[in-house]
Amino acid sequence: MDFFTNITDIIMHHGKAFLEAAWVTVSLTAVSLVMASVIGLVFAFFKVSGVFILQKLADAYIFVVRGMPLIVQLMFLYYGISSVIVLSDFTAGALALGIHSGAYIAEIFRGAIQSIDRGQMEAARSLGMPYGLAMRRIVLPQAFKCAIPPLGNQFIIGLKDSSLVAYIAVTELFNRALSAQADNFMPFETYFVVGLYYLALVAIFSFILNRLEKRLDTSKTPLPPRKHKEVAA
Q1: Does the structural domain 2-215 have CATH classification 1.10.3720.10?
Q2: Where are the transmembrane segments (predicted)?
Q3: What is the mean pLDDT of residues 119-146?
Q4: How confident is the model over 15-71, as pLDDT tens digits?
């Protein structure tokens, strides 16, 4: 009974602060994932460009990001960025998270682009369509649909990874939890409540992504072929 009493007390005293922090978490996640998507798309183009230098540059970026713990990258990028240009904690944290997620999204986009039949690009080029236009109008729309499920997973991971910016003083959910448990001396109950907030955010993200997947579903039964009229002899 004490557990539920403590939970109620935490919600009563820190509920508003947690809601404000949840909004910061959502905003941070959205900004960082927009940055990551742009970065990922650029490096995916590098990977499929056929240009040796660009491919090696993309390989190096992806290898370094995927080979180091996120918390190390976050601290390195945060203090590195802050030493060059003065940014708010939120902006620097979002940029660091965007650079990290960009490596994974680059591989998602690269795989999606390469999954499209090469014959479609060749057919477009044979009709006189420039490479960039063919990529934009023919390949990328199909690749984007293929990338939706893995992108959704990466976006949810990005939401949870945003908790690490608590260590650079961004007042998101986990940061609020650290402050609350230091104030009420109930760490278990406090982290339980914050865990529920994260579960709620993940549930909302998952719902939106599932709806998007259904709207962009390409596995629907194709239309039957048209019957050719027989020409009388």
Answers
A1: yes
A2: 22-46, 58-81, 191-210
A3: 84
A4: 899 999 999 999 999 999 999 999 999 999 999 988 999 999 999 999 999 999 988
SS3 68: coil
Label residue 151 by pLDDT band (50, 70, 90): very high
The domain spans of the chain are 2-215
